[in-house]
Protein: DNA ligase
Organism: Halobacillus dabanensis
Amino acid sequence: MDMNATEAQQKIETLRQELEQYSYEYHTLDTPSVSDYEYDKKMQELISLEEEYPDLQTPDSPSQRVGGKPLDAFEKVQHDIPMLSLGNAFNDEELRDFDRRVKNGTDTDVNYVCELKIDGLAVSLKYEDGVFVRGATRGDGTTGEDITKNLRTIRNIPLRLQEPATVEVRGEAYMPKRSFLALNEVKEANGDEPFANPRNAAAGSLRQLDPKIAAKRNLDIFLYGIGVWENDTSESHSERLEKMQALGLKTNPEWKKCNDMEEVIDYVHSWVERRPDLDYEIDGIVIKVDNLDQQEDLGFTAKSPRWATAYKFPAEEAVTKLTEIELSV
Ligand code: NAD
């Protein structure tokens, strides 16, 4: 892009304002006005301009921040460990770049775990001595909303674990495609505005003050990570996923351990085709370094772990997805 510094500054300012508005509509109000593809494209543009003009970088730029402000109607929850976002890769080359960065930051011998990127609402579940005591949204990463009562209505969230573990687990609450279509049919029949997509339907259902609403919405959950786990001796993320499942925490069965990035790329490609067969929406594949010591070597940026990335499905897929939903409701 051929721009002088003043033009770049103006462009950066416009992009920041637009992205802030989109983020507010999406994360705080659950009613996006643009597609994820459009949002991601503008975010990429902002990131590359900020890289080109490092003097114009600021810590409050949307490129440095996670999620959106919690709603005041809910009690606030301070996360013990921040709930972050994920870096993105949009093609095979960017996955190979990620692999190179990982190997520069830790050993050259790295295994990855690939998981489906569930398109729902990130939540944290806290268990004390095996008892579910608190559920929260991610919010802005530091402060979330207390939605314990709503989360209690999801049947796959155990109120008591198989063992008296003290653990804070993280996962994605989502609305299955079938429930989403049925819900929108009812909404339309009642003359109400339908939800834009299952992600917003799930988020909108869980961020209601009356838990009876969430109870009627057939929500579900997959757990995929840990905030804090007292006395855990796991050495890898894959070991943790297995232990979580054994505790009664529902993990997604499609995860796979891969020995190198080429194996990861094959897995990613296979899901571009298999994606429509799932009963829930996914918007990509999450790739995580398996070994926990290596994760620690790599650490975090202000916004995301350096030991993980999200491969986002190609744009035409995103457009098809929106069109399909628009046509079917
Ligand atoms: P993200 O959605 O790209 O990735 C991070 C999230 O992935 C995590 O917080 C977690 O909730 C989720 N996730 C799902 N499955 C996971 C798994 N197996 N392991 C780990 N995490 C998993 O980032 P984000 O910060 O949550 O949101 C940014 C994205 O939201 C944008 O890229 C865009 O697609 C969308 N967005 C859209 C608009 C809009 O107006 N359309 C506005 C803001 C954001």
